[in-house]
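Study this fold:
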Amino acid sequence: MKQFFKEFKDFASKGNIMELAIGVIIGSAFGKIVTSLVNDLIMPIVSVLTGGLNFSDIKIVLVQATETKAAVAIMAGNFIKNVVDFLIIAFSIFIMIRALTKLKRKEEAKIVVVEPVAPVENELSILKDIKVLLEKK
């Protein structure tokens, strides 16, 4: 059992795992911010532009409600809001990745490639002498 916990500790303390965990936490918080942006800012403006249409009320009723059963409906308005959420998040991630890629290209351009120095003539003659000695053995 100790070995199991040691392996888990080694696994969890690796850099990539920690970065992934931080990314998930930040992504979750970012998702909440975007959901709030859509629900509290964008959709009310869209509602005013569409004459007071509330997207949460848009639904396609498949089965009417009865005294014993609830209505069965497709909540198209919620789906539209979720699509808008997704598009904003996807666009934000695209912009972030694009910026990071440009930054990485700039960093790679700064790297100077050092050409190997050709051996000096004197070194070549020494190496040839060593080769001749080795061949004689």
Q: What stands out?
A: The longest strand covers residues 60-63. The helical segments are 2-12, 15-49, 76-110, 121-136.
